[in-house]
């Protein structure tokens, strides 16, 4: 019989789909975030460098009052004072070029004398600085249109940073009277930016990996829980159908059993065989009464939404079940042994527990066609009673053991496979368990039934 979980398992894998989708999304987010943050980091570090340079230039020009030269380029005294300030820039090794522009964009001073007196009309950064904003721009030569001040730069300045520093008329004035432009090859700054960007990308990659593993761990657990719940739901549905089927079959079996019993009571033979027939008739009547009692209990269970629980002494119940199956064990040459003493009471429903014990014993007897010992023992541990049934059959394979508790799975020819599945579900409702193990060296099968021990309050 196909399991209801098969379409779910074969047609849809939540973990795999989420892993692929989350990997694509997380990688995309990590790349986008890394690119955005690295760009912001680079821009901020360059701008900070420009602000430091602007502070230095303004302090230099304000100290000797030479900034006014940009507003009065014809004044010889201001010119000499301004040129003296510019000599400080020429002695600095970091800038590869420095240009001073007047308010109309004309180069009034430059470390490259060939540029002096020329005017660059196509320079958006210069125009922005003339409006009072510090402009920091980085790039590579040849990557965009060439500007006037790029002329003559060597190939060593392939990567450059240019800062356009607006020069104000005074300390408290907001009027821009010129712009000082500095070209730099930021070796140390570039190394610092490169190291910071590398750390940022490593952090983004690490965060992406951690996020991916964490999310997939959560979804993997959710997927397992969903599959387990789906399996339990499928099993519950199958068991519900099995219980309904068992109830219907039980009702239909009562009439033929009644007819068999009546026929057995009316058996009458010759005096020579009367004793033998009487024995067979008594066996038939006893078997029919036993089957009818089982059917009565099964019908009662199938109609009960929830079985009432009470303290149940298991030892007398084991004796009763063994005596009931004694004729079958005699035919199979099975010899049973029950642990001496009385086991503590367990919390269970007596008729249903009796059916479970009968089912376990019947399976054990069928597993020993050549006879042998059948041992029943018990052990109390941490408020649980562990009842063990050891047969001396041929044992059980692992793949069969795992499937035996599935509804409608049976190793018997013509078996319905309801007993063990119903037993496990019923015991689980009582906070108990049932499990099977193959004994060492193929010496048979061990069935362990665990039930909670009834408290003292339940015995009063």
Automatic annotation (TrEMBL):
Segments passing through the bilayer: 18-38, 191-215
EC number(s) on file: 2.7.13.3
Molecular function GO terms recorded: ATP binding; phosphorelay response regulator activity; phosphorelay sensor kinase activity; protein kinase activator activity
This protein's UniProt keywords: ATP-binding, Kinase, Membrane, Nucleotide-binding, Phosphoprotein, Transferase, Transmembrane, Transmembrane helix, Two-component regulatory system
Keyword check for RNA-binding: no
Boundaries of every Histidine kinase domain copy: 248-455
Catalytic reaction(s) noted: ATP + protein L-histidine = ADP + protein N-phospho-L-histidine
Highest taxon, organism lineage: Bacteria
One record GO biological process: osmosensory signaling via phosphorelay pathway
PANTHER family hit by this protein: SENSOR HISTIDINE KINASE GLRK, TWO-COMPONENT HISTIDINE KINASE
Protein name as catalogued: histidine kinase
